[in-house]
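Q: Entry one of two.
A:
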Amino acid sequence: AAARAAAIDADDTHIQALRTVCDDLNLYAQVGFLELAGDDLYNTAALIGPGVFVTYRKQHIPTLGADNFVTAGTGEPVVVETPIGRLGMLICYDLRFPEHARSLALRGADILTMSTNWPDEVTIPGDLLTRARAAENRVFLAVANRSDGEGGVHFRGHSQLVDPNGEVVAMAPDGASVVSGTFDLTKARDKRGLFDLRRPDAYSALTEVPSFRDV
């Protein structure tokens, strides 16, 4: 009931207000929200900018919080062509799956953009996985995390920008803040020694449905 009460549709006035701001200021922003579409709930992100409005529904759903009640998104990972680069969209738990980030990179993403809710006790994604995904795909990564609290849970902040070498360009502290950095997209588009050395013929297990033995 709480998840449904918090949900909006993609045409909500809050989204429309953000579209107006981005148009007026020539900005591109990704914002996450619970989306109500018919009877279904989705964990959704919208990429908003001048002449750009694209939504992506989270595909990897953990049994946590509102995600207990959402429907998984379907289809290919979303890459959006913009004047500031090709942006590949992720939401929170998607980062745990290297196949998702790799698919975005193979589709030409320069920058992976991610909205997330990392609580204080969840440290591995923000401390390690952001760097790994950026370095293994040679892409930039821009992550926005909450830094407030809700339902007795505090979120750790640490929004960050990571470069294609896995180096953190900027890291937010705990608490609300703005971080900034400059991206040279040529660094993300030079995949020599990476994509040309891939062996897709050896990766058939990636598209098979695994059977797990009990342990």
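Q: Entry two of two.
A:
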Amino acid sequence: MGRKLTFTVVAVAAAGALAAGLTVALTGDSDHADTSGHATSTTMHGDMPGGTVWVANEGAGSLSAIDASSGTVVATLTGIEGPHNVQAAPDGRTVWAVSGHDDLAAMIDTTTYTLHGTAATGRAPAHVVVTPDGRTAYVTNGGDGTVTAIDVAKMTPVATIPAGDGPHGLRPSPDGRFVYVANTGGGTVSVIATATNRKVADIPVGKRPVQVAVAPDGKDLYVTLNGEDAVARVDLATRKLEGTAAVGRGPIQVFVTPDGARLVVANQGTDADPGTTVSIVDTRTFAVTGTVETGAGAHGVAIDPSGTHAYVTNIHAGDVAIVDLDAAAVVARVPVGDEPNGISFSSMAPAHPATPEIAVMESHGDGGGDMPDDMH
């Protein structure tokens, strides 16, 4: 259970953020929530979960570590150029990021904020995930249509697996037997067997699939269809498309709540006409039950283990919106770096370093890689 945050605690947290050159915009409880991000109450939203929210700031070449209990950025890690995605390991002791500039995956110790090691990937790495047992990391390489499997203990690539055209988002099954990969150019989801590191199937799903989410019971797969303004559902027993549900414009990332009851879909729109919402989908009826204004270019989504709050990166607004899922309202906004994209929640509380900005790698220049513009 999260602790109740009074105005006094929020004031101290915000003061600490300002001292670090950051600001935190807090709203009141759901009856007074203002999606502009301005404070409308003297009491912050209560029962915030503990843990760390990790954010990849692709334009800034940095990672932000947010204390989930206070909504405060406690550390900014620099030196990983073009980090499109970030992923906390299952035990929370390490966090992974990909560099689209240097074609590598980096693993960072979350207790010391030091680089544990790097591993080479394919061209233009997009997303990274870690299997539930923590032994293998998988990285999609959007530039060459492959997935790199990395031995975590050795920090060594052990396999390069052909996927589809433009592999982007990926997630493992709850039992760790499979990894599901959304192929933006091919209209399919590739299924990789982790025991052999081989592709065992391609599932046709629709136009421009970007990211996947696996139901906690492992029975269903959800896929954002950026080219159809929809989310698809796949029966994993038959590996067949069951249907689609209309969401907002240009959906990108999707996350399912731990109880499997709801999906949260970020609707990014386009660079010319950014989307500003997330859609909340009831998985039983497979219909949208709520739409929340989160900010310009809603992109990444993570949900805390209690299933009460979603964290949404807004790439054009440069912040993270915290959404109370029961109230369907933004309850806080946390400014981070330029072009925040990937986001991940860890139940491990963050370390609070004396110096909030930490160089974890030597910077090699401007990031960017070969990621398609509308995937940023």
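A: Comment on entry two: The radius of gyration is 19 Å. The CA atoms of residues 164 and 183 lie 5 Å apart.
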